[in-house]
Structure formats: C-alpha cells, structure tokens
Design goal:
The chain has helices at about 5-30, 35-65, 70-75, 85-90, 95-115, 125-150, 155-170, 180-185, 200-210, 235-250. It is an all-alpha fold. It has one domain: Ferritin, CATH 1.20.1260.10. The longest helix has 29 residues, at about 35-65.
C-alpha cells in the first residue's frame, strides 16, 4: 500500500461527498410532490440518508484540506465549477420516472462503491461506508420496486419509464471513469477505482430492467466533466436555491 497525498484524498472525498449532497438536494425536491404520500416520506428519508453521508465525507474533506473549511463552507460557499459530483445527480427531474431512473442507477453504483469502501485502509472512510452501504441497499430496493412497477405497469407508465431511462443512461458512464485520483487512492488501498464496478453495476441494473420489461438503452453519447468541475446548467440553478440563505446571511447562527 502506498500513501495517498492529502490533495488526492481531498479530491476523492469531495467526489464522494458531492455526489451524495447533490443527490440529496434533488431528492428533497420531491417532498410533497411525489405521487403518493408514502413516496413523499420514502424519498425524503433517502434524501436524508444521502445528506448524512455527504456531511461525513465533506467534514473529513475539510479536515484533510486543512484550510479551515467545514462541511457548511464546502456545501454553501463553493461555486458550480468547484463541485466534483457526477453530472447524473444534478440532472433536473422532468417527472417521477426520471427521479426513479436516476435513483436506480445511482443506488446500484453507490451500493457497490460503499461495499468496497467498507474495507478501506482509511478507517474514517471505512466507517462512513459501512453505515452507508446498509442505507444504499434500501435505496436500491426502493428504486427497483418502482422501476418494475412503472415499467411493467400500464402502457403509459412503461413509455414514460423507458423515456426516463433513455434520458438518464448517457450520464451513467461518467460514474465509472478512471483518472489519476481514482487510480492513486485505489493503489493506496484507500479508495476504489470506479471502472472496476462497471460490470457488477450493469448486471444489477440489467436484471432490474429485465423484470420491468424495459430495454437497456443504447447510446454513443457519453457526457462527462463533472469530476473536473464541468457541469450542466441544472447545477447552477440547484446551487442558487440551496446556497441562497447561507450566502444572504454569512456567519449567522441559529
């Protein structure tokens, strides 16, 4: 095992934390908007799980950085090009089907990721992942249930779920991109090279789609850039709403 420089560990922790933070913000938008009251509660709880993981990863990231930034500063005082989340999690939910398609793809990825990270040589990361893997299992079960329910439901629900998957699928490839940061933390035994998770993820998601009578989308378009700070327009609007109170009242206490 080789040691991971602080800068690369910081960059890796930002990826983990930002994925969870932006996913939490998007899922929270479904509170009081979901098709059933039970879904209001379920998606809100999943959002809280993601927020809990985000807080832990970003707190650790701030400590590693050593610049005096805590979880709040990292969440509320960075601009969009400073975020390192995958573009998948920032996409606007055009309807409930899109939210479920995103959740299925993300939860299948995070479950494998956290399962691997629970054996990290970094005890702090391993501890966060050990808790998060249990939560991600529920997220995956929930997304699976609704994917099957919509895909194998009415002609209308099937069409809309298929359209949602077509919209989301191109953004899933970025989850598995490998780069210098990912390779180094993996070599150090601290993190996971995401490219190693692709086959397991595809097996899981394909199995769900088969049960839902849905086809795996085929696309040559593979947008990328989130890990280096290039994002869709949607992230700017999301951050404007998420950060407005903190920026309007800097230093305020409650």
């Amino acid at each position: 095992m080789t040691a991971a420089p602080g800068g690369e560990l910081f960059a890796y922790l930002l990826r983990l934390g930002d994925d969870a933070l932006i996913a939490a913000q998007r899922l929270g938008e479904w509170s009081a908007r979901a098709p059933e009251m039970e879904q209001d509660i379920a998606l809100s709880n999943i959002a809280l799980d993601q927020l809990g993981a985000a807080r832990l990863f970003l707190t650790y990231a701030g400590e590693v950085e050593g610049a005096g930034r805590d979880e709040d500063a990292l969440a509320y005082l960075r601009s969009d090009f400073e975020f390192r989340n995958a573009q998948l999690v920032e996409l606007s939910d055009t309807d409930f089907g899109t939210a479920i398609a995103k959740l299925l793809c993300l939860a299948a990825f995070q479950h494998l990721l956290y399962e691997a990270l629970s054996s990290s040589a970094d005890e702090r990361i391993a501890g966060i992942a050990a808790k998060a893997v249990k939560e991600s299992a529920y997220h995956l079960d929930h997304a699976t249930l609704w994917t099957v329910r919509l895909g194998d439901g009415t002609a209308e629900s099937h069409r809309r779920m298929a359209d949602a998957l077509d919209e989301v699928w191109p953004y899933t490839f970025e989850l598995f991109e490998s780069d210098r940061v990912a390779r180094h933390v993996a070599a150090a035994g601290i993190g996971v090279d995401p490219s190693s998770l692709r086959d397991g993820w595809l097996d899981t998601v394909t199995g769900v789609l088969r049960r839902a009578t849905l086809d795996v989308p085929v696309t040559e378009w593979r947008p990328t850039g989130g890990r280096s700070g290039r994002h869709t327009e949607a992230l700017g609007y999301l951050l404007a709403e998420m950060q407005v109170l903190h920026r309007a009242h800097p230093g305020a206490t409650w």
